[in-house]
Amino acid sequence: MKFKLTSLEKKWVLYDVGNSAFTMMVSTIFPIYFNSLAESAGISDVNYLAYWGYATSICTLIVAILGPTLGAVADTKNFKKIIFSISMGVGVFGCILLGFLSSWLWFLGVFVLAKTGYSASLIFYDAMLTDVTEPERMDSVSSHGYAWGYIGSCIPFVACLGVVLGADTLGIGTQTAMILAFIITALWWLCSSVPLLRSYRQKYFSESDGHVVRNSFKRLGRTFMELAKQKHILVFLLAFFFYIDGVYTVIDMATAYGEALGLDSTGLLLALLVTQIVAFPFALLFGWLARRVDTALLVSVGILAYVGIAAYAIFLRTQGQFWVLAVCVGMFQGGIQSLSRSYFGKIIPPERSGEYYGLLDICGKGASFVGTFLVSALTQLSGSTSTGVMVIAPLILLGFFAFRRAVREGRKNEY
């Protein structure tokens, strides 16, 4: 039987289409524009890559600290939409503001603000999955989110690319072109959020006696204590920390890495556009397979694929090799992200999804912090970008073994 999304599921998926435009910009135009600002200020390629990595690490650290607490608050009746809206609004505002900045330091500062808002919104967006669909539909709905997010993000990206690369033809300056590109991205993100905001209702929640913050901290403390008894969840979080490190680090650092190697900027942008196009059918494929094959097996395949991708990146030197990397990333990044999200949604209490997805975000953002920080630090210490990326593959492999342990613990829990 053909899988069809409900109206609410479609609106939930549409937010992925909107926020993915920001992700695409962060992975492509942002680091290239920052590189031009850094070069104008006399910053070397090695330090440029390091500063970009440090800024990304700061974003992830902030969200990792705030995520679980805000997630616990969001589990209170009618709070999830409010906190989601504020986070999304901060991200959209920061995205617009970035286009008006010409100082590399101010650009990094506002980038941290925008990406923090974006990342925080995803905690509550992911937690909404338990409200908008049923457990048996989660794999497919989550996969559709990533799939349409990938292909949908190409629309504003192509428009932004046309404005930036065709600035001379349009008779506008580079700064004006960048302002337009950031505004296009922000408006796409905002408009794609409206249908979900209008229709979403919090189905699962924790009651409050009026002391929202105090009760949220109590629930969060209880959840931390319960994790010791819920080994299948605890070990999964540990596994996720290690293997998602590779996914996020590759996404966050790919263009910056290519720029540091001296590869052509236009070629890098087109290669990452191909990543989005390739990711669309493969994310849907993983969702289709998840209705027929064990989800844990599919996640395992994705993790091992990323071990190979991370190892390949060490030897990347040419534009052609970067294109191969871009295609391989597109084949597996959607599957591993979407099925990890839905797998977790099926093993946690739905009425406390905000807390648990906040904890998942600690692991995801913590991993991204560790990954980008290690790549940045090793690059600076060694003076070699290739040495910096060598740390990624071993971390992902650790995640694979931990994930298989989590699966075994989960099966024990079922009996």
Concise summary:
84% of the residues lie in helices and 0% in strands. The chain has 17 helices and no strands. The longest helix has 30 residues, at 45-74.
Q: Indicate the overall shape.
A: globular
Can you summarize the main beta sheet? none
Question: Which runs of at least 5 residues are low in confidence (pLDDT < 50)?
Answer: none
* Amount of beta strand: under 5%
Proportion in helices: over 70%
**Radius of gyration, taken over Cα atoms and rounded to an integer in Å:** 20 Å
Distance between the termini: 31 Å
What class, by secondary structure content? mainly alpha
What is the count of β-strands?
A: 0
In N-to-C order, the SSE pattern is HHHHHHHHHHHHHHHHH
Mean pLDDT reading: 82
* Structure annotation, total helices: 17
Question: Can you tell me about this structure?
Answer:
The longest helix has 30 residues, at 45-74. The model has no long low-confidence stretch (mean pLDDT 82). The two termini are 31 Å apart. This protein has 415 residues and is mainly alpha-helical. Helices cover 84% and strands 0% of the residues. It is built from 17 helices and no strands.
